[in-house]
Write a structure and sequence with these properties.
Layout (H helix, E strand, L loop, with lengths): L5 H9 L14 H7 L4 H10 L4 H4 L5 E6 L12 H19 L2 E6 L5 H11 L5 E4 L6 H12 L4 E3 H19 L10 E5 L3 H12 L4 E6 L2 E2 L9 H6 L12 H5 L4 E4 L8 H6 L5 E4 L9 H6 L4 E4 L14 H10 L7 H12 L21 H16 L5
Length: about 400
């Protein structure tokens, strides 16, 4: 039998990474009468009279559901909801440790959109927000879209938007290092046309990017791309406006920026040399990026970012989602919209002062204690400005 890894040993030791802790002390009969029967009836009746009182009388406004069906677990694929639970528990740990937001992991034994949506709708009343996690494309797009339309609490698919927000923050600061570069005039290649890649392209378009090429296994996404998915087809409204065809290498020719959410080691030094001088490369495949930083820099990359913690410029969605949910919950937001996501990117980017900014320090370390307050405040302000808050 193979020796257990240190991580696996720890998981056996923990027997689960989260637990329920009581906020109410029940040490006496009086405590019991207040927290449970008969006193609890007063809270029940207050909520019956005004359902909005649930936000004040229960943990609803501090509780996020982290929901998966296990069809697209990072680096592991479709392993099923039970096998995805360690990831969901880990996500709940990050919510609590980084933002003091309580999160509860839930797995759903279904893959079809209708069942997933209906199941989430049936349990949504217990939570102040929904975090969708590790749900495969293209179903994830429709699931999120329908839940946003049909629920009155924030719904956020972190695999899409969390990654996009942090990429946006890193790119905001990367462009500051080049006076002659502007996101509106730069050619940006996003490699990987799944949930994360599509969300990144959308987010960069909102930030002002006009020349984005989305690339997948068969090359550049274009109008006659084989087996063109519905969401990829929608992306042609904001990407590849000249309907260019060709390979990844064709896309990279004279590109200013490469953003990878695809597969390990698919980018070579020769590919980098096709790009404009001093390109920006964010290679975020995990655990092995599309190109290793030493190879990229030797080929002429000026600014390099990865998803890993052992290299500079770690682009990790843990820098986004805790603060985003905290801000949305504090605002009693009914939705997390584009403006709130954009505010989060600028909130993260703004923590790096101009005098501190350099090629190996684009965004704060994910453990920087300033991130959650900055992001939550930016999101809260934008939620209020957008009028997406409960009355």
């Amino acid at each position: 039998m193979a020796e257990k890894s240190e991580a696996l040993k720890k998981h056996y030791e923990w027997q689960g990474k989260i637990e329920v802790v009581s906020r109410a002390s029940v040490k006496t009969r009086e405590d019991l009468a207040l927290a449970y029967t008969p006193g609890v009836a007063d809270a029940c009746l207050a909520i019956e009279k005004d359902p909005e009182e649930a936000y004040a009388l229960t943990r609803k406004n501090h509780m996020v559901a982290v929901i998966t069906n296990g069809t697209a677990v990072l680096g592991l694929g479709d392993i099923g909801p039970a096998a995805a639970m360690p990831v969901m528990e880990g996500k709940a740990v990050l919510f609590k440790e980084f933002a003091d937001v309580d999160a509860f992991p839930i797995n759903i034994q279904a893959k079809d959109v209708d069942t997933v949506v209906e199941t989430i709708k049936q349990i949504a009343g217990s939570f102040g927000a929904i975090n969708l996690e590790d749900i495969a494309a293209p179903e994830c797009f429709e699931i999120e879209r329908r839940l946003i339309d049909e629920l009155d609490i924030p719904v956020f698919h972190d695999d899409q938007h969390g990654t996009a927000i942090v990429v946006g923050a890193a790119l905001i600061n990367a462009f500051k290092l080049f006076e002659e570069r502007d996101i509106k005039k730069s050619k940006i290649v996003v490699n990987g046309a799944g949930a994360a890649g599509i969300a990144i392209a959308k987010h960069l378009s909102v930030m002002g990017a006009k020349n984005i090429l989305l690339v997948d296994r068969e090359g550049i996404i274009h109008s006659d791309y084989p087996n063109l998915g519905s969401e990829q087809k929608r992306m042609l409204e904001i990407t590849n406006l000249e309907d260019q065809t060709g390979s990844l290498q064709d896309a990279l020719t004279d590109a200013d920026v490469f953003v990878g959410v695809s597969a390990p080691n698919i980018l070579t030094a020769d590919d980098i040399r096709l790009m404009k001088k001093d390109p920006i490369v964010f290679a975020m495949a995990n655990p092995i990026p599309e190109i290793m930083p030493d190879v990229a820099k030797e080929a002429g990359v000026a600014i390099m970012g990865t998803g890993r913690s052992d290299f500079p410029n770690q682009i990790n969605n843990v820098s986004a989602f805790p603060g985003i949910f905290k801000g949305a919950l504090e605002a009693k937001a009914t939705e997390i919209n584009e403006a709130m996501r954009l505010a989060a990117s600028y909130g993260i980017a703004g923590l790096v002062k101009d005098e501190e900014l350099h090629a190996e320090y684009l965004i704060p370390d994910p453990f920087d204690s300033r991130i959650v307050p900055a992001v939550s405040e930016a999101v809260k302000k934008e939620a209020i400005a957008s009028g997406l808050v409960r009355k």
